Amino acid sequence: MLFLNPYIKDEDLDFYNTVKEFAKEKILPSVEQRDEDCTWDNELWKEMGSIGLLGIPIPEEYGGQGGNCFQCCLAQEAFNAGSLDSGFGLSWGAHMIIGSLPILFQGTEIQKNKYLPKLVNGEWIAGLGLTEPDSGSDAAGMRTYAEKTKDGFVLNGSKTFITNGPIGQVFIIMARTTKSRGPMGISAFIVESKNKGFSVSKVLKKLGHNTSTTAELTFEDMYVPDENLLGPLHSGFLRIGKATLEWERTVLLAALMGGMENILENCIRYSWQRQQFGKSILNFLQLRKRLREFGFIYVQQEG
């Protein structure tokens, strides 16, 4: 239904249709069972990496596609429109946007070359550790603290509701590096799940998005070397968190539009096929009115 948008170029529509067909062919057949079982499919993940979907905004020099935020939105919308697998799409978005982009935006060349290629091809999965049991985007309530040592930092604290928590290898962790409160005292660190002191303390059950994994993470005297500080000291939240969260909010909305497209298409298809009193129920004016209203809402939001 993206063709209804007059601002979409032909090449954008081709990209959209390619992702949508991939989602229909590869993701859709197993989504119901995976959602029921609350399982993660790493083979599907690696297949997405092999065709370039995990690195859309990452420059080609690091193995990515060199795309922009709009192309990330197109991909997420097409994925949900084709598969209605919002959970897997959520894990993908968390990995690509709030897990990988901070390294691209603020990382050193050493950090970019070490992490981005493996995040792009699906070998590693990334996530962002911002939310805590007592705080979320309210930076003033953050308790996780990184104490400076001679050649690094020692982190103590916990994060919760972390998408990709049970399966990720690389996390961008926000931690306070000064005793003062507020966003100016927060730094960002690239943390690997293999680090001593890193643990998945609890895998969280959810009411939906069951094909995505979510967890609480705990750090107990976890050493992080100086070279894993991401961006300037004390500026992690302001320079990284806010910038990537703006991308995240935009891409999440596009994913929801994809789900809306899927539902609308299925409603129209079913209404056309369903026969009552010798004719398609799509001929009944009240039903047609409801579908038209739904369609208007979709077109307005798509614009």
TrEMBL record:
Domain Acyl-CoA dehydrogenase/oxidase C-terminal: 236-293
PROSITE patterns to which the protein is assigned, alphabetical: ACYL_COA_DH_1
InterPro entries (alphabetical): Acyl-CoA_DH_CS, Acyl-CoA_Oxase/DH_mid-dom, Acyl-CoA_Oxase/DH_mid-dom_sf, AcylCo_DH-like_C, AcylCo_DH/oxidase_C, AcylCoA_DH/ox_N, AcylCoA_DH/ox_N_sf, AcylCoA_DH/oxidase_NM_dom_sf
Chain ranges of the Acyl-CoA dehydrogenase/oxidase N-terminal domain: 10-123
Occurrences of domain Acyl-CoA oxidase/dehydrogenase middle (ranges): 128-222
Entry keyword Cytoplasm: no
EC number: 1.3.8.11
Entry keyword annotation includes Plastid: no
Co-factor requirement: FAD
Molecular function, one GO term: flavin adenine dinucleotide binding
Keywords per UniProt: FAD, Flavoprotein, Oxidoreductase
Pfam families (alphabetical): Acyl-CoA_dh_1, Acyl-CoA_dh_M, Acyl-CoA_dh_N
Protein family (similarity comment): Belongs to the acyl-CoA dehydrogenase family.
Official protein name in the record: Cyclohexane-1-carbonyl-CoA dehydrogenase
